[in-house]
Write a structure and sequence with these properties.
The protein is an all-alpha fold and about 80 residues long. The protein has 3 helices and no strands.
Length: about 80
């Protein structure tokens, strides 16, 4: 009676202890900060373009709509650095 219980316990311990080796984290290089800057710049450009188009569709002049969209972006999203155009 103790032999099947002992065998089952050993099997469980072996399965649980070896499973961790399959999910070991690998050392990946950290992403460059240039990637995040590029994503921020793309997001800024797309958001301002979309908002300026919405404002222009409501009857605002194109230049005024773009300026207002830039100001709204600054209010909504506070990035640490200035996005280059």
């Amino acid at each position: 009676m103790t032999k099947p219980i002992f065998t089952a316990a050993i099997a469980c311990v072996l399965l649980w202890s070896t499973g961790c080796a399959f999910f070991k984290k690998t050392n990946r290089p950290k992403e460059s900060s240039a990637i995040s800057s590029e994503v921020e710049a793309t997001f800024h450009q797309r958001w301002v373009d979309k908002r300026a188009a919405e404002l222009a569709a409501q009857g605002t002049a194109a230049a005024a709509a773009r300026l207002q969209a830039e100001q709204e972006f600054g209010e909504h999203y506070n990035f640490d650095h200035k996005v280059k155009k």
